[in-house]
Design a protein that fits this description.
mainly beta; Pnp Oxidase, Chain A; Elongation Factor Tu (Ef-tu), domain 3; 2 domains; seven-stranded antiparallel beta sheet; 4 helices; 35% strand; extended
Length: 272
Amino acid sequence: MRTATVDYIAAEEADEREPAELYHIWRDGGEHWRLTSGDKAETYDGNSYTPATLSRSQVSYNSQLDVTTIQVTTSSLADPVFDYIAINPIELLWISISKIHRGMSPIEVSVIFIGQIKDVSFKGGTAQVNCVGFEHFLKKTIPAWRYQLTCNHQVFDTKCALTKASYKTTETITLDATKTILTGTDFGLQVNGYFIGGEVVFGTESRTITAHTGTAITIMYPFVELVSTDDVDAYPGCDGRAETCRDKYSNILNFLGMPFIPIENPALRVTW
C-alpha cells in the first residue's frame, strides 16, 4: 500500500509487535511460490504463505536513480522453488516482499520491494538471491532496426508473421541421464539442425535447443520435472539469414535484414 493507515502505523509503533514478512515469487503465466519469514503459516488475500528460513538485506535506494537492489538469503528450503531459480535467467522470475503485523484484523501489508530476480549464488545449503527493482528495465537500451546482415525480426513474432503452431512437433520423449538429450521418433523426420535455436516447451516452461541430430535434440538446461514418456512440444529455430528465411520458412517477403551490405570496408581498401 502507498500510504499506511492509522491502524498499521499504530501496530508498527507498538511496544509489543508481531511482524512477519511475506515473499511472493512468480513466473509470468506460470507457478507462484508464497513464503513467509515467520514461524507459522500466514494467510493474506486468500493465499497461504509457508514458513521458510529467509532473511534479507536492507533495500538500497539512491538519489541518482540507480537501480534498487536487495539480497534474500535462504537455507533449508523444502519447496522446489530454488531448483527453478538456479537456472535463471532462462525464465524471468518476479519477487515481491511485504510486511505484515499478525495482531491486526484485518491484516494489512506494507510493500517493501517489488522487482526481478537477477541471479542466484549457492554456498553449501544456502542460496543468495540477488534482486533488482523495476528501474532495471529503464537502464536497458532499446535500439530501433539495426543495419545488419541478419533479420531484425524474431522467428514467429508479429513482424515475422509465421504461425508458431504450424511448426509445432509434439513428441513423447526419452531422456538420457543428464536430462538434456531428448529422443523422439518425429525429431528424425526433419533434417539435422532443423530444431537448433528453437525451443522445447513442457508445461509452462521452455528450454533452448542447442543441437539436433537425427532423433535426438539437446537442450541448454534440464527441465526439473520432465521424465521419459512425457510429451513435449518442439519448435524450430532461425539463424536470421536470408537463405534460411527463404529455404526453410518460405518467408522472404517478411525478411528484414541487409544481406548485401559489404563485408569489407571500401575506405580501408588498399590498391597497388
